Amino acid sequence: MLRAAPNVGKLYVLIKAKDKAAAMDRLKKEIIDEDLFSCLKDRYGKSYYDFMKSKLVPVLGNVSEENLGMDPDTITLLAEEIDVIINVAALTILNGRFEVLLNTNTKGPVWALNLAAKCKKLCLFLHVSTAYVAGKIEGVFFEKALIMGQTTPPTISAPLVDVDVEIKLASELDKSLHDDNEKAKKMKDLGMERAKFYGWRNTYEFTKAMGEMQISRMRGNVPVVIVRPSIIESSYSEPFPGWIQGNRMSEPVILSYGQGHLPGFVGEANTIMDIVPVDMVVNAILAAVAKHGITAKPELHVYNVTSSVENPVTVNDLWEHFHDHFTLSPLLDSRGKKIIVTLPELFTELHSFSAYLREKVVGKNGLQENLLAIDPKSHSQIQRECNKIVMRSTYLAEIYKDYVCGKVRFDSGNTKKLLENMSTQEKMDFGFDLGNINWRHYFVDLHIPSIRRRILKEASISSPVATSRF
């Protein structure tokens, strides 16, 4: 927004910190100094920091607390100033503690919605959810609101969910436990148990779904848009290809494969994955703000920012793209030799994958054949390393199994219409045409090189052979 719409008035950024000085410090380190804004640094030169500080206002608070953790004076100020609220706060730990995820993913949207209801000039409240509120359904998941007490979608047991009961249940267990370790374990177990009971795969999806239900139930006359992206990965083009902040879902798997630790993985070859570049998600959000913020009608609109219907990519496609990249630009082992990768074997059962992986890793390190020739101390160290690789890879497979074996596809008809209704110039400035993504180019030339630069700190990665194919 600062890059493409610099005439915006002010952007108030809710920041969790111990005091205002710490909030300002986080704003500077995590936003103003980020490479994301390098183009603005070039544009404004020495006046860059003044420009950013004139637009960005840190607000001390906490999305998981009542009134967003803000003091009354701040709430009064924001109620006078704000036109649009965009709630992007979420905890994405799939099997996190139930009460913690409830506070952020379920209660948090309510606190933000309450602020929206107080804003005198409010045009729109936009909530960023996730496409995976779909849960365990098979088939097409449509752009319809999740409403507590109604069969929407019919393949989720939504009528059985009472958000107030779940919040009370978590609160009562929380108060009854005093040992921190016991509380952490039981809260994680409770979240997964409740999620699976109602038809979701993990606590994250369940608490995000309940957050949507709360918005639907409590929005009143507030104009609301819910945006549901799927798996968000690095940017396709803006502000430059391959940008993203933090470590994302695919990165541990991709790097483990490139390092030669994943000769196999879980998944079904024809399962359609749903991946979206972060810049296209942002542009879809801004387009929705522009469209519905102007009318400010007290309606609820849902957009699935997803690719599985418009531009599907399968599990097999992904592994071929990963293989192509690391064949063209292999990683080096500790001795400086190129690591050779092969297309991984796919398993649908975790125990089969784990046994296969252990056999491959042990065989690769020669533990069985050379057991008698290896010094006992060296053998023990190699054995520990092998166990670590197997345990880490099995853990990754367990986390991602539901996503690489799932049967859901996300309808994105509303999102496609949103794009079609934009002018030619708007599409150039804020385009998000997921149908035009070349997935091989994206992974081989953009996404994986970005991972290597950010995480492995490699200076420059190029794939000249891959690029020449397009």
UniProtKB/TrEMBL annotation:
<dbReference type="Pfam" id="PF07993">
    <property type="entry name" value="NAD_binding_4"/>
</dbReference>
<dbReference type="InterPro" id="IPR013120">
    <property type="entry name" value="FAR_NAD-bd"/>
</dbReference>
<dbReference type="InterPro" id="IPR026055">
    <property type="entry name" value="FAR"/>
</dbReference>
<keyword id="KW-0560">Oxidoreductase</keyword>
<dbReference type="GO" id="GO:0102965">
    <property type="term" value="F:alcohol-forming long-chain fatty acyl-CoA reductase activity"/>
</dbReference>
<comment type="function">
    <text>Catalyzes the reduction of fatty acyl-CoA to fatty alcohols.</text>
</comment>
<feature type="domain" description="Thioester reductase (TE)">
    <location>
        <begin position="1"/>
        <end position="285"/>
    </location>
</feature>
<dbReference type="Pfam" id="PF03015">
    <property type="entry name" value="Sterile"/>
</dbReference>
<dbReference type="InterPro" id="IPR033640">
    <property type="entry name" value="FAR_C"/>
</dbReference>
<feature type="domain" description="Fatty acyl-CoA reductase C-terminal">
    <location>
        <begin position="384"/>
        <end position="458"/>
    </location>
</feature>
<comment type="similarity">
    <text>Belongs to the fatty acyl-CoA reductase family.</text>
</comment>
<keyword id="KW-0443">Lipid metabolism</keyword>
<keyword id="KW-0444">Lipid biosynthesis</keyword>
<keyword id="KW-0521">NADP</keyword>
<dbReference type="GO" id="GO:0010345">
    <property type="term" value="P:suberin biosynthetic process"/>
</dbReference>
<dbReference type="InterPro" id="IPR036291">
    <property type="entry name" value="NAD(P)-bd_dom_sf"/>
</dbReference>
<protein>
    <recommendedName>
        <fullName>Fatty acyl-CoA reductase</fullName>
        <ecNumber>1.2.1.84</ecNumber>
    </recommendedName>
</protein>
<dbReference type="GO" id="GO:0080019">
    <property type="term" value="F:alcohol-forming very long-chain fatty acyl-CoA reductase activity"/>
</dbReference>
<dbReference type="GO" id="GO:0035336">
    <property type="term" value="P:long-chain fatty-acyl-CoA metabolic process"/>
</dbReference>
